[in-house]
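In the design runs reported in the main text, the only information available to the sequence generator was the tokenized backbone. The following block is the verbatim input for one such run; it is reproduced so that readers can re-run the procedure and compare outputs position by position.
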């Protein structure tokens, strides 16, 4: 049993781990009461950012950043998932493995784009020297139609741009008018966060610095992670993770927010948002970060979020696993406000309507509150735990309180979250999956996502003043 996750252990080359480590974690996980039934979760260890979300060779592809040997951040790989429907994903195991010269200390976040008959992956190789100084590399790899992966040994971008620190990562690759671009999250030496744009005629390079992405005039804190430019209903949206952003610029409750800015239009020549909106929270809940976006070939703008936060430990750590993903969500815009709803394919998870107060751990609850009213919903367990949802159609507010929903965690950042919605009646579609909840409010105008870790394993719903419909959802994992 590992009692202390030293740096040495976290960065131990994979081949030096005894096979038994994974067997032991799987054994622990098999007894878990916190595993999920229809959300992506790691087969063992820690899952963080979604990477390489793409449609290629007739299938959806997604990779999860993973440290498989324990529920901590360590030497990361990309673990490969495929799906025919964006709902049920098959886990093919770690594929983009760290440990070469260009990614010696981890295959960090990145993205993917189909190029001819292959999928090109662009990612950050985390490299540290013997003095533990970081030298981030932007690397490439090819996935072929047999799902075989081949890394490119020479970095595509060998070092941060002059004037920037070693916090320089998470390339998002895009193609426009026959030219490839990548967006990179960066921390300048003056401790300000930026998104830099590089360009190339071919994905394998040479890659050249083009410009900085101009998407706001507001100060963005000291670092931007995971930038994603996506076009929604014809308008540009930047989804990103600013670190150290002032509360006066963005009121946020979590350790770091996942945020977005919408432009009226996009100037590709200057990489500039025309009439950018103010910065807004992507999710009003507890645990969303590192969202990855995709303009899919079927015309939809899709996202998937990491439901987990940096520098945060979760109660499931004792079971040898941590974190999960949100459902895949489809984006739309109305008045510069992003609307997010689970992709329609999720409807096939619905098994049957439930008519008793007891619900299944995998349930969908539709909540309606009339205009001018206040109402409550309680998701309770047989161990006296409860998640409270307070709806207020008088002031246009929804409060979610996980204070007594189970084991305490991340309490330094509070145990309640509030969402403001437009006045009028309120509708909430609540997706519950044992230890994750996603609330889609008023057609996805607001989303509130979080984890909870109850001891009870039977769930009940009680309510006051609202109309409820409950459905059992299929458990697919
Ligand atoms: C965001 C992040 C990325 C980085 C990755 C490393 O959660 O810090 O910036 O590439 O995680 O695992």
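Verbatim output:
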């Amino acid at each position: 049993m590992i009692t202390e996750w030293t740096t040495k252990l976290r960065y131990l080359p994979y081949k030096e781990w005894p096979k038994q480590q994974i067997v032991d974690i799987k054994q622990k996980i098999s007894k878990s009461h916190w595993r999920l039934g229809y959300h992506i979760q790691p087969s063992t260890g820690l899952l963080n950012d979604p990477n390489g979300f793409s449609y290629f060779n007739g299938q959806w592809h997604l990779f999860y950043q993973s440290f498989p040997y324990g529920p901590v951040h360590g030497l990361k790989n990309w673990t490969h998932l495929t799906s025919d429907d964006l709902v049920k994903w098959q886990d093919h195991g770690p594929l983009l493995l760290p440990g070469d010269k260009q990614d010696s200390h981890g295959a960090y976040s990145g993205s993917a784009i189909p190029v001819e008959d292959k999928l090109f992956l662009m990612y950050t190789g985390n490299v540290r020297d013997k003095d533990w100084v970081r030298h981030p590399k932007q690397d490439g790899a090819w996935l072929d139609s047999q799902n075989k992966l081949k890394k490119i040994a020479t970095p595509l971008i060998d070092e941060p741009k002059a004037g920037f620190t070693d916090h320089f990562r998470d390339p998002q690759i895009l193609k426009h008018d026959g030219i490839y671009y990548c967006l990179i999250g960066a921390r300048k030496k003056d401790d300000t966060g930026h998104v830099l744009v590089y360009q190339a005629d071919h994905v394998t390079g040479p890659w050249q610095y083009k410009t900085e992405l101009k998407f706001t005039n507001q100060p963005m804190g000291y670092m931007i992670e995971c930038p994603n430019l996506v076009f929604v209903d014809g308008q540009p949206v930047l989804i990103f993770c600013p670190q150290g952003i002032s509360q006066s610029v963005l009121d946020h409750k979590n350790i770091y927010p996942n945020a977005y800015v919408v432009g009226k239009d996009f100037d590709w020549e200057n990489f500039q948002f025309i009439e950018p909106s103010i910065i807004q929270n992507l999710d009003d809940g507890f645990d969303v970060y590192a969202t990855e976006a995709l303009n899919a070939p079927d015309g939809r703008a899709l996202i998937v979020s990491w439901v987990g936060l940096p520098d945060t430990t979760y109660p499931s750590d004792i079971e040898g696993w941590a974190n999960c993903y949100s459902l895949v969500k489809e984006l739309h815009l109305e008045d510069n406000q992003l609307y997010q709803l689970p992709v329609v394919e999720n409807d096939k998870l619905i098994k049957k309507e439930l008519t008793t107060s007891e619900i299944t751990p995998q349930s969908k609850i539709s909540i309606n509150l009339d205009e001018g009213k206040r109402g409550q919903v309680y998701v309770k367990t047989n161990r006296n735990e409860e998640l409270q949802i307070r709806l207020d159609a008088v002031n246009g507010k929804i409060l979610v309180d996980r204070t007594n929903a189970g084991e305490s965690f991340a309490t330094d950042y509070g145990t309640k979250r509030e969402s403001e919605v437009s006045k009028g009646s309120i509708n909430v579609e609540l997706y519950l999956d044992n230890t994750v909840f996603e609330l889609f409010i008023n057609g996805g105008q607001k989303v509130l996502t979080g984890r909870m870790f109850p001891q009870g394993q039977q769930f009940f719903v009680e309510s006051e003043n609202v109309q409820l419909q409950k459905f059992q959802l299929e458990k697919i994992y």
